[in-house]
């Protein structure tokens, strides 16, 4: 997916922030950078899409679903049936009987069913069934594939300790017959409660069971090829486990009325990245007078769980003539993942920042450039806190990529102190040397805006452990960039760690992309 190519960076300084700071280097942006940012042009892109077939096939585009209730979301059921020759199946059952895996009663039932299939002219029977709901492995009962909703006979493994006729794991099978599917769901609910599942877990598991029964009875499930679900591959097992009904829309921070007002201008994308084994959401917010044949800069914001809520105000500034029209985009985890979870953010934005950079540079931005006319040289990447660590990494490794999706970078309150984690090799020294960028290049061909809150250092005092505070790390980065005569601006807002961001983004939009 990643193609690293050493590039000779242009000595021409690319567009930057034109005001908003008392601190700036003496370098000046080119005269054209704050002029016409929207132009009419044919749809072309200089970026090369390096998504593999799986990733391309997984992309979904639809209208905004953030405002939807979880029940409104459609779910998919996929089934893999692994088949086995009838004689091989009978031999397998015999072996299970001999080693105690099957009781005599269970063995007889298996043989009876298999011989019935032979009598019906079948040469194979189902050896194993795997069911996925939205890609998550379903652990409940799978009814027969000819089930019509009526009487149902089924067995359950009941824990009985290490005696009472159970096998060596302390389980034995109990057989039940219920008059219909509804009776089974009620039985299943009671069993789950007995096992100690909490109310949310019980509700989710029963909902999953209803969904699977409905898909099988109505033949609406997707058939998967044999070998699709592979529990023998440790690298792929984790993707199967999770709650398909998990939904974290409620943790997103936004004003509902403001989002309602712009929702028709929002296009929502789902991207799967095989390297990170994660699904991401990208919200693209089109400007007020968007024209498909016009070229626009893009402002790409990480931490969409918070930043998407800032986009209505940014778009309103365009409507009011305070800023030129640009395309806005936010990046977040999908709704099944808590995008506010600090460990998830840290893992992706800091520990796996190189993989995320590959994903944004070679997957997301090339794909979006195929959908919209984007002026990459005038486009901005924004990251804050752990996202600031990512944006710093993206800036100073940008020369290693053929694709150049951004000409501008906002690094907000970077938590460089998070790199001092003894459990991971996070290349602290590389970060402090800006990843050797200036060993490879004479000039930084990008514009940089550094920002932070003047009151924020005490916010994470317990995390510094003798290392630079947030503002000390930011100040040292500014000094390094000045030494290399980079076009950099730097501003502190009277604020704590994140409260300044809405004001800063509006200011940046007005001054970088003036009307």
Radius of gyration: 28 Å
CATH topology of the largest domain: Rossmann fold
- How would you describe the shape? elongated
Q: How far apart, in Å, are the first and last alpha carbons?
A: 38 Å
Query: Largest sheet at a glance?
Result: 10 strands, mixed
Secondary-structure arrangement, i.e. CATH architecture of the largest domain: 3-Layer(aba) Sandwich
Please work out how many helical segments DSSP would assign: 17
Strand line-up in the sheet with most strands = 1-18-17-16-15-13-14-11-10-3
Instruction: List low-confidence stretches.
Output: 1-35
CATH homologous superfamily identity of the largest domain: Alpha/Beta hydrolase fold, catalytic domain
Mean pLDDT: 88
How many domains, in number, for the residues? 2
Description:
By secondary structure, the protein is an alpha/beta fold. The chain folds into 2 domains: 23-30 and 46-70 and 249-512, Rossmann fold (3-Layer(aba) Sandwich), CATH 3.40.50; 74-240, no CATH class. Helices cover 33% and strands 20% of the residues. The protein has 17 helices and 18 strands. The strands form 4 sheets. Strands 1-18-17-16-15-13-14-11-10-3 form a 10-stranded mixed β-sheet. The chain has a 4-stranded mixed β-sheet with strand order 6-5-4-9. A hairpin with a 2-residue loop joins strand 5 and strand 6 (136-137). Helix 4 (181-194) runs antiparallel to helix 5 (199-217). The radius of gyration is 28 Å and the shape is elongated. Mean pLDDT is 88; it is low at 1-35.
């Amino acid at each position: 997916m990643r193609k690293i190519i050493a590039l000779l960076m242009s000595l021409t300084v690319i567009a930057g922030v034109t005001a908003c700071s008392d601190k700036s280097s003496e370098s000046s942006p080119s005269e054209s950078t704050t002029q016409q940012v929207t132009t009419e042009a044919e749809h072309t892109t200089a970026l090369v899409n390096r998504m593999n077939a799986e990733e391309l096939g997984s992309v979904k585009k639809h209208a905004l679903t953030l405002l939807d209730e979880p029940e409104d979301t459609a779910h998919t059921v996929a089934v893999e049936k692994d088949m086995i020759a009838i004689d091989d199946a009978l031999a397998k059952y015999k072996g299970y009987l001999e080693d105690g895996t099957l009781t005599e009663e269970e063995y007889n039932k298996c043989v009876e069913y298999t011989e019935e299939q032979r009598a019906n002219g079948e040469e194979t029977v189902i050896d194993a069934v795997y069911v996925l709901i939205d890609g998550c492995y379903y652990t409940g009962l799978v009814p027969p594939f000819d089930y019509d909703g009526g009487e149902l006979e089924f067995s359950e493994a009941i824990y009985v300790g290490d005696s009472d006729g159970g096998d060596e794991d302390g389980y034995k099978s109990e057989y039940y017959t219920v008059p219909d599917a509804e009776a089974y769901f009620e039985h299943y609910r009671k069993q789950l409660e007995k096992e100690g599942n909490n109310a949310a877990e019980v509700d989710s598991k029963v909902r999953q069971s209803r969904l699977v029964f409905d898909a099988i009875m109505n033949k609406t499930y997707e058939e998967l090829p044999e070998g699709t679900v592979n529990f023998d591959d440790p690298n792929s097992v984790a993707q199967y486990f999770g709650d398909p009904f998990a939904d974290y829309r409620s943790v997103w921070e936004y004003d509902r009325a403001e989002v309602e007002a712009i929702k028709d201008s929002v296009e929502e994308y789902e991207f799967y990245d095989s390297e990170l084994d994660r699904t991401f959401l990208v919200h693209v917010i089109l400007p007020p007078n968007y024209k498909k044949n016009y070229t626009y800069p893009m402002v790409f914001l990480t931490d969409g769980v918070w930043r998407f809520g800032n986009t209505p105000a940014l778009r309103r500034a365009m409507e009011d003539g305070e800023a030129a029209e640009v395309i806005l985009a936010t990046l977040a985890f999908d709704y099944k993942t808590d995008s506010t979870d600090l460990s998830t953010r840290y893992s992706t934005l800091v520990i796996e920042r190189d993989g995320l950079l590959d994903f944004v540079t070679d997957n997301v931005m090339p794909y979006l450039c195929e959908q919209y006319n984007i002026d990459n040289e005038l486009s901005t990447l924004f990251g804050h806190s752990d996202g600031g660590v990512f944006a710093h990494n993206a800036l100073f490794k940008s020369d290693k990529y053929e694709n150049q999706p951004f000409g501008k970078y906002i690094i907000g309150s970077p938590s460089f102190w998070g790199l001092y984690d003894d459990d991971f090799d996070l290349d602290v020294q590389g970060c402090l040397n800006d990843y050797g960028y200036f060993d490879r290049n004479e000039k930084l061909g990008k514009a940089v805006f550094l920002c932070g809150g003047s009151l924020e250092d005490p916010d994470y005092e317990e995390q510094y452990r003798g290392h630079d505070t947030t503002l000390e790390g930011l100040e040292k980065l500014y000094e390094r960039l000045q030494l290399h005569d980079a076009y950099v601006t730097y501003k502190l807002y009277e604020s704590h760690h994140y409260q300044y961001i809405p004001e800063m983004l509006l200011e940046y939009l007005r001054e970088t992309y003036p009307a």
